[in-house]
Design goal:
Blueprint (H helix, E strand, L loop, with lengths): L1 H19 L16 H13 L12 H10 L2 E3 L4 E3 L4 E5 L3 E4 L11 H21 L4 H13 L19 H17 L1
Antiparallel strand pairs: 1-2, 3-4
Helix pairs in contact: 1-6, 2-5, 3-4, 4-5
Length: about 180
């Protein structure tokens, strides 16, 4: 019975955490100083690569692995999946990430450009999750701001973050906690 109570307490704590939501301070559009969110994406990643936005990770050349992942990724393109190099001008530990964000400027009206933009966010999230998962928390607000400007984008900017369960995971955990309590009684 003690184990069932412990599981129930954990489930309640997870549900409370998920229900409270997580807020991030991030970019807000300023019409006096317009900016392109995908330029902010490249700048954020470059700052992480250059350690200007420190990533709490051992120095294991994650930057090179991340860039290799990006360069070998595929995104939606004009009527086919194609290399992400269509949008990536440069990605290396010395220069950082430079995106051809001008290719995404019509993502609001051109569905295929929107798909390319969304897939780019998914690719960065994927590569970070495999080469520097510690960077995902800092990446999430910048990614979310860019996703907000991309119609019908379903990129989950923090889906690979290895933290406490939230959302659906919390509901599943709570369900099993209730089942454990019922079985224990």
């Amino acid at each position: 019975i003690n184990m069932a109570r412990a599981v129930l307490a954990l489930a309640i704590a997870c549900l409370a955490s998920a229900a409270s939501g997580t807020t991030f301070t991030g970019w807000t559009y300023d019409p006096e100083n317009p900016s392109e969110p995908f330029d902010n994406v490249a700048a954020k990643v470059t700052n992480m690569i250059h350690n200007l936005d420190p990533v709490d990770r051992k120095q294991d050349n994650w930057q090179g692995g991340f860039c290799t992942c990006m360069e070998n990724g595929h995104i939606s393109s004009w009527y086919q999946y194609a290399s992400a190099m269509y949008l990536i001008d440069t990605c290396n530990p010395t220069d950082g990430l430079i995106l051809r964000s001008g290719h995404l400027q019509d993502r609001h009206t051109e569905p295929l450009e929107g798909m390319m933009a969304c897939d780019t966010l998914k690719l960065v999230s994927y590569c970070l999750s495999h080469h520097a998962p510690e960077a995902l928390e800092a990446w999430q607000p910048v990614c979310s701001n860019a996703r907000y400007t991309t119609p019908a984008c379903n990129a989950d900017c923090s889906s690979a973050f290895h933290g406490h369960p939230t959302g659906f995971g919390s509901l599943v955990l709570a369900f099993f906690a209730v089942v454990a309590v019922l079985i224990a009684n």
